[in-house]
Structure to design on (185 residues):
């Protein structure tokens, strides 16, 4: 276990490639699964974040309370921008917010992270009549896992096509039974 006492400086972040960042996040996920996560001095990080903020990645995730993105990727304060939407479903406003956030924050990696056990996706399938606007955004999969994968892949395509997104975009699925994050190729 490592002790993390500081936040990422701008020069440290700028020296990283999107591949470096993805490798760090996936290594963090392996530490999480093995219950060997970093020891993080959150108080020190909060103090440092008063003056500087240099996130390395934006993670689009489900609102599901069973997932704490920073925890499953073993990251500290300031490392990630996490955007949560119901089921990972993106509306036009969400897409524009992602584009602006990536353009203005300097992140080098965007991960469209779906949840294979999304409570929202499980529940909404039986209630689309109550929420007709959501119908057009729902994936067509028969199982929650199929829907999650479809959302992750379609979100990656959508985000990658944005004019002001100059970052690597990948899709992934969080496996709730194992805690592993699987990159979809």
């Amino acid at each position: 276990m490592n002790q993390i006492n500081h936040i990422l400086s701008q020069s440290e972040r700028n020296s990283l490639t999107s591949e470096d960042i993805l490798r760090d996040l996936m290594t963090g996920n392996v530490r999480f699964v093995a219950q060997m996560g970093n020891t993080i001095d959150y108080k020190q990080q909060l103090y440092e974040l008063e003056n500087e903020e240099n996130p390395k990645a934006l993670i689009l995730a489900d609102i599901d309370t069973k997932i704490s993105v920073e925890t499953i990727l073993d990251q500290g304060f300031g490392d990630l921008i996490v955007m949560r939407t119901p089921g990972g479903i993106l509306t036009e406003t969400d897409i524009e917010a992602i584009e602006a956030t990536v353009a203005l924050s300097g992140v080098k990696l965007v991960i469209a992270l779906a949840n294979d056990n999304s409570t929202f996706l499980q529940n909404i399938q039986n209630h689309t009549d109550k929420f007709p606007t959501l119908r057009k955004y729902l994936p067509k999969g028969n199982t929650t896992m199929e829907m999650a994968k479809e959302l992750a892949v379609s979100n990656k395509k959508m985000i990658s096509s944005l004019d002001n997104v100059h970052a690597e975009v990948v899709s992934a699925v969080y496996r709730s039974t194992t805690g592993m994050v699987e990159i979809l190729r």
About this structure: DSSP finds eight helices and seven strands in the chain. Residues 144-160 form the longest helix (17 residues). The chain has a mean pLDDT of 87. The helical segments are 10-15, 18-33, 42-49, 69-72, 92-105, 119-124, 132-135, 144-160.
